[in-house]
Automatic annotation (TrEMBL), chains A, B:
It comes from the Bacteria. It comes from Comamonas odontotermitis. InterPro entries: FAD-bd_oxidored_4_C, FAD-bd_PCMH, FAD-bd_PCMH-like_sf, FAD-bd_PCMH_sub1, FAD-bd_PCMH_sub2, FAD-linked_Oxase-like_C, FAD-oxidored/transferase_4, Oxid_FAD_bind_N. Belongs to the FAD-binding oxidoreductase/transferase type 4 family. This is FAD/FMN-containing dehydrogenase. The keyword Flavoprotein applies. Keywords: FAD, Flavoprotein. The keyword Membrane does not apply. Residues 34-215 form the FAD-binding PCMH-type domain. PROSITE patterns: FAD_PCMH.
Length: 474, 474
């Protein structure tokens, strides 16, 4: 092991192999659920260095945990407690390699922070539409490794759909340059999409070519108060019809989620919160290539139809950017409001949109029966069928004790309901180590068997992020 | 072999195992370049039958060639001449299983004809946007197996981007049901995209869940005459900016392609054909969720800006559906006009959009130098960087002899230029058997090595479409 560390120091330089001091930022996950111990944290400065590091580890049979911003929610980018795994942190590789205006692409190192990428595009008059809570810290490499989702998926897709090419160091330390930036290329198997979402278990993404879009002339936000969850699904259909691809956001929130925001962040002024007849609300965004006036006229036409069909009871369209930010801020404050209220049991599920109302009714009923008094924080990206169906302890109960006693059981209640309605137990967060033991209960055995064959084919030594995703299946 | 055929007859019924008579429709490719000989043509009626057929072939070590409409252009769905391969034709499996309006998905058997799928969606008020020349005969399974492109990719992506889930019979004859129809699902490796575009070399796609869209209120077509190829790229950028996601088609055609249409189909009345100052023309389509009037106003704003910047010299916006069809018909008649003029050497290439003008200039100069008098039919889906850069024999020369003598050389002149400009030798047609020998010259060795590992992992017997794609690499 000392030999390996000496080799790593030679490859990336002494300053970039960390073995001493407080390495929590690299060894502990974002939600501080697990604290591991790395053999070393290695911070390469180039793709060639990544390749040489992987070769050195492979020669030594040493496991590698690729790491970007380490903001994931499923403990997929931190080492285990053995002290034998190398954390390969891509943070130093954060350059924008090229922005191609005619090709509508940007090519960036994997360690580029998502927000830097957004800002660089905006400066040049373009939109990079991936947007999520951790954008100030997460990296595009991590977004790709986990196929991150966020709030614009209804229009632009997941990180997968935004990517046109990858540069990857595979488990043998070879560099595959797939950064052509083509919108059409049928010359063999789709390696790009195989690495996207593979959570570092097949190789290391070192760079990517991503799609960018001309900045819309206007991005307008509205808030609607709804009589039921069914109404939210109906409003979504109407929004697709009236706004077409202009519909760039559609988020649903239940009343309890909003009351938490109202209670813990009263300055945010949640619309219509005093009216108990509104069990649900949605935030909508309309992006328009013409003008704000046109975006507003289309929103008004949509809302008129919604009022007529009684699927929306009240609505407000943001008058200016400040109001729009405030509406989004309410939506984005739900996780923090939950923390203020106490720990809760988080889920990241998806269900076909047509079946979500029945799923919500069923899962809520089962939970209410088995966990009397539980409080449901039901919110998420309805446009993609993705809910964060979180369970808060009954009022007054000790949240930590509730989690310790009931988390496993409640997860399985929710996942069983998800399975019954044809959904997924991980919509946008991935499997990581947190759900690795649960995955075999809910993923098809035929699919798992093919996945294991692929893992064995591309990483026969099993050195790439070995505790992650398929770990419990090996 | 007689035992296998008897088994196959038991599985799918005597009537659905063809061994005698004229089997050209199954044994010969669409462009009639190759005529093979099948051991048998098997036409299963269900996914379970497909699985049992694959198991029987696997037990016998017999190769399987999956086949949809057999309209591919790279000889990827016909048997070789050995008489030992089973053609597995999916044509009988053509049901629409479900259309889910709230989830915006349609689930169909692989053998469903593309046009039937489009029509079924239209009948219910939805758009299935995949559209290509062979749509009256090709199947969605074939579209998926080859990741087909077409004319709407600039907005909706390739077949890959339209697919939310697959049902597959793998090389072991196991059924993987991945038809959940979710827009977000991160529970392991992306098997869906691995099978899409794998040209039947990893398994058999038996069904798919595809995205559908609300039918736009208006689809308007325009034609613009341009002073140069550079102007086409500039107009594309302007169209993205002015039309946003409304831009659903952007096709470029050089003057020679249009003169062929004018010569062989004079009734089509090519706009501005008498003006020799227009070396290129484009067809644009604007799909609008509001109204035809709005679509027209946006087109006018775009064209005004284009005239001002002198990147368009003249333009016409279709006044009605008949005119729109006529404009598209001109574009779609180019391949037929080429046939009328005589055989030609076809290419299906893509290059980053920013580099296409320089590529066209370079490749044209090299061709003109090495093949004096050659006539270039340059047209295609500029919105996706995809050109059909076809070479017609010099005027008066025997086209058949020209092909026999020069095809190989001309292919490599074009492909070398494509490689120099960072492009792909197969944008939307795939590799098939036609380009299998060429692929290793232009694809990354690291990528090829990973592809071969995956093939070996999922089809260790090598029975799935063995002459296709990676064949020359085994």
């Amino acid at each position: 092991m000392t030999d390996l560390i000496a080799s790593l120091r030679r490859i990336v330089g002494d300053n970039h192999v960390l073995t001493d001091g407080d390495l929590s930022a690299y060894e502990q996950d974002w939600r501080r659920r697990e604290h591991g111990k790395a053999l070393a944290v290695v911070r390469p400065g180039s793709t060639e260095e990544v390749a040489t590091v992987v070769k050195a580890c492979a020669a030594n049979g040493t496991a590698i945990v690729p790491q970007g911003g380490n903001t994931g929610l499923v403990v997929g980018s931190t080492p285990d407690t053995s002290g034998t795994q190398v954390v390969l942190n891509l943070g130093r590789m954060n350059a924008v390699r090229a922005l191609d205006k005619d090709n509508l692409t940007i090519t960036v190192d994997a360690g580029c922070i998502l927000q830097s990428l957004q800002e660089r595009c905006e400066k040049e008059g373009f939109l990079f539409p991936l947007s999520l809570a951790a954008e100030g810290s997460c990296t595009i490499g991590g977004n790709l490794g986990t196929n991150a989702g966020g709030t614009q998926v209804v229009r632009y897709g997941n990180t997968r759909e935004l990517c046109l090419g990858l540069e990857v160091v595979n488990a043998q330390g070879e560099i595959w340059n797939g950064l052509k930036g083509l919108r059409k290329d049928n010359t063999g198997y789709d390696l790009r999409n195989l690495f996207i979402g593979s959570e570092g278990t097949l190789g290391v993404i070192t760079a990517a070519t991503m799609k960018i879009y001309p900045m819309p002339a206007s991005q307008l936000t509205a808030w609607a108060a709804l009589p039921s969850f069914e109404a939210a699904v109906q409003l979504l259909g109407l929004a697709h019809q009236y706004l077409g691809a202009g519909l760039t956001g559609f988020e649903v929130m239940n009343r309890f989620a909003l009351t938490l925001v109202d209670k813990h962040m009263p300055q945010l002024r949640v619309p219509f919160i005093d009216n108990p007849d509104f069990p649900y609300a949605v935030v909508l965004e309309n992006s328009d290539s013409e003008s704000e006036a046109h975006a507003r006229a289309r929103f008004e036409a949509l809302m008129e139809a919604a009022f007529e069909q009684e699927i929306a009871l009240d609505a407000v369209v943001a008058e200016n950017l400040g109001q729009a930010h405030n509406l989004w801020h309410i939506r984005e404050s739900i996780p923090l409001a939950q923390v203020e209220e106490g720990l809760n049991i988080k889920h990241d599920i998806s269900v076909p949109i047509s079946r979500i109302p029945a799923f919500v009714e069923h899962a809520t009923a089962v939970l209410a029966h088995k966990v009397p008094g539980m409080r449901l924080v039901n919110f998420g990206h309805l446009g993609d069928g993705n809910l964060h169906f979180n369970v808060q302890a009954p009022e007054g109960m000790d949240a930590k004790a509730f989690l310790e006693e009931r988390e496993h059981e409640i997860n399985h209640i929710v996942y069983d309901a998800v399975a019954e309605f044809g959904g997924s137990i991980s919509a946008e967060h991935g499997i990581g180590t947190l759900k690795a033991a649960t995955l075999p209960d809910y993923q098809s055995p035929v699919a798992l068997s093919m996945m294991r064959s692929i893992k064995q084919a591309l990483d026969p030594q099993g050195i790439m992020n070995p505790n992650c995703m398929l770990a419990r299946q090996a």
